[in-house]
Amino acid sequence: MTAAPDQRPFAAGSEVAGQVAGEDLRVLFGQSIAVFASLTGPEHVVETANPAFFATIGEHRARTGVPLVDLMPELAGQGFTALLDEVYRTGEPCTGRDVRVVLGTGPHAREAFFDFTYEPRRDGGDEVVGVRVIGVETTQVKHAQHLMAEHRALLEQIARQAPLTEVLDGMARCIEDLAPQEVLVSVLLADPDGLHLRHGAAPSLPDFYNEAIDGIATGEGVGSCGTAAHRRESVVVTDIATDPFWDDFRDLADRAGLAACWSTPILARDGSLLGTFAMYHRAPRAPQDSDLALARVFAGTAALAIERHHTEQARRDAETRAEAAHAELTKAMRAEQELRAEAEQRAEAAAELADRMHAAEAAQAAVPHPRQCALGGADGCAAPAELKVADAWGDAAWGCHAHAEEALLNVRSAFIANEELGGLAAYLNRRPVRARHAGGPRTG
């Protein structure tokens, strides 16, 4: 009987020690970024929690004295309540790494990741009276890992020279998946003169919107993208409905359900304009530092992809021009060879003709000079033979001035152009015709 009084002070002392330890934990975790909550009883009533816990679940739910499942009903179907029940029942702690949890419901729900520990709380008699929840949110680390993996995949696409449209489309979808809030990404490509922007990628924007802004000018006040391209600096429009930059596009944006647009210029290493990278939102919104950092990272990636594309396009164009020039050179060389062969054939024919003319000349030199014209045909001509007429085939005849002139006209125009017609021989053997003039030389 005397033992009981001794146990009561011990139990009381243990309870006080437990309370002190709890206070220490609250002090330790009070200003920490780690999430801390102390739950009591089988219903896991929130006895106390640090500011980080309430900031995580939402300040509008910052209260104690209520079961955790009432404070955060979304946990019921995610297995966390069952784990709390097991720790409370067995007294064994439970830990988890990068555990996914959906916080909130409806349009305000967000995905988060935590490293956590559930530790049993005991009274002086070693009986479990509650559970301590200690967690560190790893959502940003998880997103950063996802971001780096996606970024690495994009760089690999660029390295293997994937089509630019494929790279830009994949980049846009990646950002839309990574962003904690809904965002619609657009990439516009600058014309070579830098005066207009063309559609590059915008997988989530409606087609009518993409078609309407395809080819917009770069200039001050031309929406977010046209202005960013003109200024060569980021342009943030938090409310399209009231911003003067969007006066000419406000109705179009309203039809597409767009309320905010942040645009970042995509610049080459030499500072020239490559395009713009835009992030659209369904509601008016100002960017956070993380949003701007994300835009800068992917604007740089887009610049790398576009410059690589331009380099490859220039190389392909150069190869095409070189192939065309080579084809033209080959064609010219072939034509030159054909002309040379033709010239050689003509030279051979000319040499053969010259040989024949020399032979005819030698043969005719031995023929005596007739006294009368031999060009009068069957009717003959008594005029003296004063001129010798010859053709390229070795035929020759003497005649008077009138008949020689007539022979030259007829042989040149009718016979000498075609060897098959017989040349001068055919003229000499022509059918009888009445001599145009059988007298002396024709004058006038």
From TrEMBL:
Answer yes or no on keyword Glycoprotein: no
Locate the coiled-coil region(s) and give their ranges.
315-360
Q: Which domain of life is it from?
A: Bacteria
Keyword Coiled coil annotated: yes
Domain called GAF: residue spans: 150-316
Q: Which UniProt keywords apply?
A: Coiled coil
Recorded protein name is GAF domain-containing protein
Q: Which organism is it from?
A: Saccharothrix texasensis
